[in-house]
Amino acid sequence: MAASDDQVQKSKNASKKCFCNKERSPARALAWEAVVDSLNEIHSPKFQLKDKKAVRERWNLLRKKFSKKMSEEEKASALVGREDTIHAKAESASKQHLKDNETAEEIRKKAMESLKETKKRNSDEGGASPKRRKSRRAEPLVDFLREKAAADREIRQQELRAKQQEQPVLRITSPDHLEESQQQMMKAMILQQQQMNTAFLTVLKELLDK
């Protein structure tokens, strides 16, 4: 015959009294004895408990297992949260990289437009001295270099801020995640520099072909 609801409730009430009394006090010892008596009254499942020590030790074992399980779940939840943060920062860095590429392309377009305007002015001012034409021909390159330097400074500042924000997160991630993030950042910086150099060489070639 299974344990009745009254027997189960009686055991629960007795166990609650254990924690209402001060640890190692006579009242608490009596409460543990009441738990033993209430469990032994249950016929199915059948308990054969001789003293309160066995019940107390079993309770401590279950409590430790439960605490360990909860701790592992909390750590797993925190790890998922850290990974989400890393992914969010990686996505933000990717968007910033695309924005920087657009900035580099815009600078190149402005330099090319300035070059075309210079060519047109040189064509209209055919009587100008060679020295003056040469000076005006170099104006697009000077403007491009000036804008490129400003863009490079802004990009480096943004990368520095991004690194400073990522450091607290990277310190608590695994070495594999840290190495992967560093490699991705390095690849993005190399690609960005190559694109800026390509834009610079394009403008320089246009000037030399003139």
What does this structure look like?
Residues 69-124 have a biased composition (Basic and acidic residues). This protein has helices spanning 5-18, 26-40, 52-124, 130-171, 175-209. The longest helix is centred in the middle third of the chain and has 73 residues, at 52-124. It is built from five helices and no strands. By secondary structure, the protein is mostly helical. Helix 1 (5-18) runs antiparallel to helix 2, helix 2 packs across helix 3 and helix 3 runs antiparallel to helix 4.
Helix-strand sequence: HHHHH
Helix content: over 70%
Rounded mean pLDDT score: 67
Kindly state the number of beta strands.
0
Q: Identify low-pLDDT runs.
A: none
Strand composition percent: under 5%
Task: Name the overall outline.
Answer: rod-shaped
Rg, Cα atoms, Å: 38 Å
In DSSP terms, counting alpha (H) and pi (I) runs of 4 or more, how many helices? 5
Q: Ends: how far apart? A: 103 Å
Structural class: mainly alpha
What characterizes the major β-sheet? none
Q: What's the layout of helices and strands?
A:
Elements (H helix, E strand, L loop, with lengths): L4 H14 L7 H15 L11 H73 L5 H42 L3 H35 L1
Helix pairs in contact: 1-2, 2-3, 3-4, 3-5, 4-5
Briefly characterize the structure.
The protein is mostly helical and 210 residues long.
